[in-house]
């Protein structure tokens, strides 16, 4: 065998081996990708195509045999499928009809639902409006009551109503903004009006009490003089009884009847406007302002009362002048004791020292101008009796003025100084 013949035989054998590999891969149903790659790598795409065509023919034969075997069942399945398609069309038609009716009913229900939601919204709005209206009615009712109290002059209930509005409503419970702004604007004006009214009443009281000070002082001095006279009479009766006892008349006895004088029953003057104004200012949160107002005005009145009029001789006016000063301090003493801190002891002491200094200066001046000893003694005795009563009366009308401090208080010292000045004119 020649060399050329050997090469051809080897090539044929190689081709036959590659074809058998492709045939095996096709018959085993392997993936097409590796088979195509192998065919092109070996240069045998025609062989692969031939193998695939053979496989297709084989499968077609198998399909034909299978169809022949199951022909009747296949026909029945196709008929059933057509029946299913008809049923599906009918079901689709029914679903479309039901959907149409559902849409009609749903549209009506949706409309009703929207109306219901709108009704709920209206109901909530009405409920909220009723609640707001009730709050506004309560606030306006308090405002009406407050105005009624103010018009009737009942300022404390009016301030309580204002305080109730501020605490319970003004913060967050006034739903109407315009009403809230109006109330916020009117409350300060109302408080200012109440303050002016009570101050006006106090001013009227200051004028009235100043005009009554003379009568108060004269009444107090008269009762104090009567008490001193009763005391002297009792001492005289006591001495007489003791003398009779020494003479052997032991069956005689004596009793000392002490008549206590109630200051409030003797000196009747009304401090109600003062108490009321102080209480109202305390409710307004400005008690210190009223204390200063009262003290300054009364101090000015005292300074005015301490001025001597030149239209009338001092001998004729000295009792009125001194009684006026005494009445002034009787009033201030009661204010100190009963007004709850309106007047402090220090302030009263200052007014007292001012009065004593001024009275001393007036008496020195008037005594220096007197020529008659009887006139001088008349004034001196009246002043001395007043000094004694202010200083020594422990439980009577002047007691609270004279014995509030110890025996060496500044007031007693000033009285002693005044009496010493009087003795200098002897």
TrEMBL record:
GO biological process: Golgi to plasma membrane transport; intracellular protein transport; vesicle tethering involved in exocytosis
InterPro entries in the cross-refs: EXOC6/Sec15, EXOC6_Sec15_N
Spans through the membrane: none
Any Pfam family: EXOC6_Sec15_N
One GO cellular component term noted in the UniProt record for this chain: exocyst
Ranges where the Exocyst complex component EXOC6/Sec15 N-terminal domain occurs: 51-221
Protein name: Exocyst complex component SEC15A
Source taxonomy: Eukaryota, Viridiplantae, Streptophyta, Embryophyta, Tracheophyta
């Amino acid at each position: 065998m020649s060399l050329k013949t050997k090469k051809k035989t080897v090539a044929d054998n190689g081709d036959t081996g590659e074809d058998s590999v492709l045939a095996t891969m096709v018959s085993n149903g392997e993936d097409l990708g590796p088979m195509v790659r192998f065919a092109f790598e070996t240069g045998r795409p025609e062989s692969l195509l031939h193998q695939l065509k053979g496989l297709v023919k084989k499968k077609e034969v198998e399909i034909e045999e299978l169809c022949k075997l199951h022909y009747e069942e296949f026909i029945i399945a196709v008929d059933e499928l057509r029946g299913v398609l008809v049923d599906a069309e009918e079901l689709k038609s029914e679903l479309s009809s039901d959907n149409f009716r559902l849409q009609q009913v749903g549209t009506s229900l949706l409309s009703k639902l929207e109306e219901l939601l709108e009704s709920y919204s209206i109901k909530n709005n009405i409920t909220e409006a009723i609640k707001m209206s009730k709050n506004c009615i309560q606030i306006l009712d308090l405002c009406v009551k407050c105005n009624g109290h103010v018009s009737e002059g009942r300022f404390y209930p009016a301030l309580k109503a204002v305080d109730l509005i501020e605490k319970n409503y003004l913060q967050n419970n006034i739903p109407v903004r315009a009403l809230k702004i109006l109330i916020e604007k009117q409350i300060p004006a109302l408080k200012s009006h109440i303050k002016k009214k009570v101050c006006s009443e106090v001013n009227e009281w200051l004028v009235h009490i100043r005009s009554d000070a003379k009568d108060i002082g004269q009444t107090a001095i008269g009762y104090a003089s009567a008490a001193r006279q009763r005391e002297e009479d009792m001492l005289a009766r006591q001495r007489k009884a003791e003398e009779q006892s020494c003479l052997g008349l032991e069956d005689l006895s004596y009793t000392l009847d002490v008549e206590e004088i109630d200051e409030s029953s003797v000196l009747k003057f009304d401090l109600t406007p003062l108490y009321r104004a102080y209480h109202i200012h305390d409710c307004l949160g400005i008690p210190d302002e009223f204390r200063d107002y009262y003290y300054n005005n009364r101090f000015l009145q005292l300074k005015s009362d301490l001025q001597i009029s030149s239209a009338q001789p001092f001998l004729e006016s000295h009792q009125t002048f001194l009684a006026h000063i005494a009445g002034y301090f009787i009033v201030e003493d009661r204010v100190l004791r009963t007004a709850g801190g309106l007047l402090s002891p220090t302030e009263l002491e200052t007014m007292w020292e001012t009065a004593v200094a001024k009275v001393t200066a007036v008496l020195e001046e008037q005594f220096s101008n007197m020529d008659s000893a009887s006139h001088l003694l008349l004034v001196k005795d009246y002043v001395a009796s007043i000094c004694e009563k202010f200083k020594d009366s422990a439980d009577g009308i002047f007691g609270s003025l004279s014995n509030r401090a110890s025996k060496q208080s500044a007031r007693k010292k000033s009285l002693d100084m005044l009496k010493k000045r009087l003795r200098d004119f002897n």
